[in-house]
Specification:
This protein has 18 helices and 16 strands. It is α/β, with parallel strands linked by helices. The longest helix has 21 residues, at 158-178. It starts with 14 loop residues before the first helix and ends with a helix. 40% of the residues are buried.
């Protein structure tokens, strides 16, 4: 029996049948190392038929000293980390190669599966989280491929969390061997016999020869698109990073936009708001993170897409530009600003700042966006402003009169006039005064169209590095070619 040739199985097998299929494959063989929630994954393999066909070794180094002796000391004395998980799967993969002769087992497809988790605490204050990963071969003696993911538990009982962890672990091992040709399908299959409200994947990374053509940023985007998680992040280096690690106990300044492309206006908003934010007495620059956020709606574009309105090349172009300028990027499913604030408030009690233009502030004070809330706009604003939040407001120019509009002369609907006045008078809205008036004439959509039309004037409206990258990498131009063929 080979590892990958059986297509007659049903699309969604039971967990027991998945384990049985793996156990009966004479070539798939590996180790299980599980820390923190019992041996929940390997338990399923023991209960299925022929466990000796798959299990070379299983262990649970639950005691920290034992764990350190096997996998090494952690500098911060932490155990539920991606670094610990990587040490586990690397160590176990090396050990199986060392102890099982390739001469004796020339056709074996070795793997090492591991998880390190913390389930809900007795006080039910922290729901729990963990890392799961597998290092595996799909061909004998092949370089190993990896799948590593982070989960957040949402069930209120440790036993239930353990059950969910075990199911997802089986799904991960099975998917690695039988469903890894398409990582999007693999992500979907991780939730076989699980609901998304029980366990949330908020970070996933693929690596190795099986996934040589996979861009992990697209896989992060997939998590948000499929409603598996609400937000994902990647670093200036373009790597997927765990939001909780980035945001924990940090001051956070956020600039939302489409960034298609980044313009001089965006850059000026960023630089001036950062200066004002860092001048706050309680803001330590060393404990501050600045986030450039795009929502799914920001990403939807015309031209070629994969059926959901999002052009993946266009998305990667924007991500590349932001990362190249040293920014941390967040993709979210938060349409309303108060949801962004709620999300950040889960990770920090420090200062929060939102950077926006006057037109965005007008939208925030539009009652129709809050009709789904029983408390309407007051409920939304209670969630948004009860923390240490400030809005850094960039002015706009009235195209008809040329008047510069800021918080002082902005006109809002009479029904919310007093509410607006309350927040302005209490220092929750801070005008960015050191702006460049000529930048107020820059409209990102017009800049984008200028790029498509070959109008070289666009180069004067964006930062130098942005212009250089757009030209060198032919960014945003594939859509033009596809549109001209229609």
């Amino acid at each position: 029996m080979t590892a990958l040739s059986e297509d007659h199985f049903e699309n969604i097998l039971s967990i027991q049948n998945k384990c049985t299929r793996l156990n009966l494959n004479e070539n798939i063989y590996g180790t299980f190392a599980e820390i923190g929630a019992g041996q929940e994954t390997v338990r399923h393999f023991f209960r299925a038929g022929n466990p000796k066909g798959t299990i070379a070794k299983t262990l649970s180094a639950y005691d920290k000293d034992f764990s350190d002796a096997i996998y090494g000391l952690d500098p911060q004395n932490r155990y539920v980390t991606v670094e610990r998980l990587k040490k586990m799967i690397d160590y176990e993969a090396e050990l199986i190669e060392e102890r099982l002769s390739r001469k004796k087992y020339p056709d074996k497809l070795f793997f090492s599966y591991a998880n390190t988790v913390a389930t809900i605490d007795w006080a039910k204050k922290y729901k729990g989280h963990g890392w799961l990963g597998i290092k595996f071969q799909r061909e004998p003696k092949q370089e190993y491929s990896e799948i590593i993911l982070h989960v957040q538990f949402h069930e209120n009982n440790a036993s239930q969390q353990q059950i969910s962890l075990g199911i997802m672990g089986v799904n991960l091992i099975y998917a690695a061997f039988y469903q890894s040709d398409d990582p999007r399908v693999l992500i979907e299959k991780l939730y076989d016999h699980l609901s998304k409200d029980k366990i949330e994947i908020d970070s996933i990374n693929f690596r190795g020869p099986v996934f040589k053509d996979v861009d992990n940023r697209l896989m992060s985007l997939e998590l948000v698109k499929e409603g598996i998680t609400e937000a994902v992040m990647f670093s200036p280096e373009g790597n997927n990073i765990l939001p909780a690690n980035v945001l924990y106990k940090k001051n956070i300044l956020t600039l939302r936009g489409s960034f298609r492309p980044v313009t001089n206006l965006n850059l000026n908003m960023f630089m001036n708001s950062r200066k004002l934010f860092l001048e706050q007495e309680n803001v330590d620059p060393d404990k501050t993170v600045i986030i450039f956020e795009m929502t799914l709606n920001n990403l939807k574009s015309e031209g070629e897409d994969n059926g959901d309105g999002i052009n993946e090349k266009d998305f990667l172009d924007r991500a590349d530009l932001l990362c190249a300028s040293g920014q941390t990027v967040m993709i979210s499913n938060f349409q309303e600003y108060y949801k962004v604030v709620e999300y950040f408030a889960m990770h920090t009690k420090k200062e929060l700042g939102l950077v926006m233009g006057v037109d965005n502030l007008v939208d925030i004070f539009n009652e129709r966006y809050y009709r789904h809330l029983s408390g309407g706009i007051l409920e939304a604003f209670g969630k948004m402003f009860f923390k240490s939040l400030k809005v850094y407001l960039y002015p706009i120019k009235d195209e008809e009169t040329g008047e510069i509009i800021n918080s002082k002369n902005l006109k809002v609907h009479p029904r919310v006039k007093e509410l607006y006045k309350f927040f302005v008078d209490n220092g929750k809205v801070i005008d960015i005064e050191d702006y460049k008036e000529e930048y107020l004439d820059i409209h990102p959509r017009k800049v984008y169209n200028m790029i498509l039309e070959g109008d070289e004037e666009w180069e004067n409206l964006v930062p130098g590095l942005t212009a250089k990258m757009i030209k060198e990498k032919n960014m945003f131009r594939k859509e033009k070619a596809s549109q001209s063929q229609d």
